Amino acid sequence: MEDPDADTEWNDILRERGILPKKNGPTEEEIFEALDEAIAARNAKRLEEKSLEELDELEDEEDDRVLLEYRIPECKLMNALLSSLAMKYKSTKFLKIIGDDCIPGYPDKNLPTLLIYGEGDLQQQIVGIQRFGGMGTTINVLEDFLESVGAIEIFKQKGSKDDYEENASSTRKSIYSKKPATAALSDDDDDSD
């Protein structure tokens, strides 16, 4: 009989029928090792083909990436906090953009920068997160600040959920006027007591 571990069509058919035991394939660890080796070989080959100028440019790019990783944590923190607030305050629009895409040449030292608009005008500009406590900034501190400048409205829940929702809907503003959306009710309704 032939070698049962040989890769032949006949042995594959016998394995499918259960006559031969299934062939042991590579383990997950072996697959990852082979993948790592292939990536390392590819990168080494790619680097060998580069000129000194190209290698110098790659080194500069790597330096820039390392520097950015030390600057980005503040932006990552602010982005995470604002993303959480955006889910909570759906009536407020939260936007984000890369500094250089917004203002060409905008210095990285000023990131993150918050631009808070209201009624079509810039209401507040905050550069950096030191004002909120640096890397220790919490969502509550940021939420309180955004409420203080009028970017969001926090409704303090005093009663039931229905009271909270009623309070929230009564203070929503119409997009066409500065009056509350429920102001259409006349004051004559109070006389019916």
UniProtKB/TrEMBL annotation:
Name the source's superkingdom: Eukaryota
Cellular component terms per the entry's GO annotation: cytoplasm
Question: What are the recorded Gene Ontology BP terms?
Answer: protein folding
Q: Which residues cross the membrane?
A: none
> Entry's PANTHER family?
VIRAL IAP-ASSOCIATED FACTOR HOMOLOG (PTHR45809)
Q: Which family does it belong to?
A: Belongs to the phosducin family.
Listed name of the protein = 13441_t:CDS:1
Species annotation? Ambispora leptoticha
Lineage, uppermost ranks: Eukaryota, Fungi, Fungi incertae sedis, Mucoromycota, Glomeromycotina
